[in-house]
Amino acid sequence: MRQLKRAFGGKDGDHEDFHFGNFSQHFFSPHQPHGPNGSHPSHDGHGSHGGHGAHGPHDGPSCQPGPQPVKIEYRSFDGSQNNRSDSTLNAAGTEFARIGTAHFADGISVPLGGNNPRTISNLVVGAGDADVANPEGVSAFMYAWGQFIDHDMTLTRTDGVNDISVVVPAGDPVFPAGSIIRITRAVIDPTTGPGTSNPAMAVNSNSAWLDASMVYGSSAATAASLRTADGHMKTSAGDNLPIVNGMVVAGDGRAAENPALTALQTLFVREHNYQVDKLHHEHPNWSGDQLYNYARAIVSAEIANITYSEFLPNLVGKDALTPYDGYDPNVDPHLTLEFVAAAFRFGHSIVSGETEGLAENGEVIAGSEEDLKDVFFQPAANFIDNGGADGQLRHLAADPSQALDARIVEDLRNFLVDAPVSMDLAAINIQRARDLGLGTLNQTREALGLDPYTDFSQITSDPQTLAGLKAAYGNVNNVGLWTGGLSENHVPGALVGETFQAILTMQFEALRDGDRLWFENQGFDAKTLSEIKGTTLADIILRNTDTKHIQDDVFVTYVRHTGLAGGVESEDPDARQIVIGSDGTDTLIGGPQGDYLFAGTGKQTMTGHAGADRFVFDSGATKAKITDFDPDVDLLVFKHARRLDFRDVKISGNHGNTIVQVGDDWIELTGVRPYELSKHDFLFDV
Ligand code: HEM
Ligand SMILES: [Ca+2]
Ligand SMILES: [Ca+2]
Ligand SMILES: [Ca+2]
Question: How far is the CA of 254 from the centre of ligand 1 (A)?
Answer without folding.
Answer: 10
